[in-house]
Design goal:
Blueprint (H helix, E strand, L loop, with lengths): L1 H7 L5 H9 L40 E5 L3 E6 L16 H8 L6 E2 L8 E7 L2 H12 L4 E9 L8 E5 L1 E2 L8 E2 L7 E11 L2 E8 L6 H8 L27 E9 L6 E5 L7
Length: 272
């Protein structure tokens, strides 16, 4: 079986495979480890966890706002991924909290992108995931964001932005298609102005990728420190000096299990 693994896993050196076998990292269907002496058998399943790449630690804590038997609600800091993916495995809310809260089945009910901070809802067990995820799929959740962005005196608030947003797979930026049927809608309210910048309340009525960032950019008032809009900037993963000035401030819904009204508010600051 060892020789078969060397053949099937060319990205791992034979020496690394021998080391993993010695550590009991390869197991069979019953969870029993195999070793260098285990004979080859066709049509067997062998399980193992791949080595994780080195990651830049995100130096901000996840704050738990609420926890009960079904859900955990947190303040996700900027720069921390919601779920493990790509270059961000250990440095994700799910992986951190599974260990911290001793909840191995913890999973997200929705997502915030890595650069956005604020209220994030997770479920404690798999059996609760579907009811809470379905709320977001059927738009039964009220969400409100706050952002620091540019100011234009010729814009009258509140206003509603509608457009057709497309996000192509493998491309970092989303874009709007002029003249196409709108699939994204955002209400923008002006809360406060300080010189050439202002603080806004953003209420998304749809959930397209980068919707809020793209809609403010299309108004000519891009969000401060946005590395994607208006232009794509190459920011090193270890640079935490300029967080995106966008926070998921409020999340409200009727609990899908018992009907209880729920409302959660982020405590993260939004510096000018």
């Amino acid at each position: 079986m060892r020789d078969h693994l060397v053949h099937r896993l060319p990205k791992l050196s034979p020496e690394r495979i021998d080391q993993m076998l010695a550590e009991g990292r390869f197991v069979d269907e019953a969870g029993d480890p195999i070793d260098v002496a285990t004979p080859y058998e066709a049509n067997r399943f062998i399980w193992f966890h791949r080595d994780l790449p080195d990651e830049t630690e995100v130096p901000f804590e996840v704050t738990v706002l609420h926890r009960d038997e079904r859900i955990v609600v947190v303040d996700k800091p900027h720069f921390l991924s919601s779920i493990p993916r790509g270059q961000h495995i250990r440095q994700s809310v799910v992986v951190r909290l599974r260990a911290q809260l001793e909840l191995p089945d913890l999973g997200v009910a929705h997502r915030l992108d890595r650069l956005t901070g604020g209220v994030l809802l997770l479920t404690t067990e798999r059996r609760w995931r579907a009811p809470y995820q379905s709320m977001f799929e059927h738009r039964q959740v009220s969400k409100a964001y706050e952002a620091i962005a540019g100011y234009r005196a010729d814009l009258t608030f509140p206003l509603t932005v509608r457009s057709h947003i497309v996000k192509d797979r493998g491309v970092l930026q989303a874009y709007e298609v002029p003249g196409a049927e709108p699939n994204a809608e955002t209400t923008v309210e002006l809360l406060e102005r300080r010189g050439k910048f202002a603080r806004y309340r953003l209420v998304p009525h749809t959930g397209k990728t980068h919707q809020l960032r793209l809609h403010l950019h299309s108004l000519g008032i891009p969000i401060r420190n946005d590395p994607f809009y208006p232009e794509l900037l190459d920011v090193p993963l270890g640079d935490f000096s300029a967080p995106l000035r966008l926070i998921a401030r409020e999340l409200a819904f009727a609990d899908p299990v018992d009907g209880t009204p729920r409302r959660f508010t982020s405590r993260l600051p939004l510096p000018w």
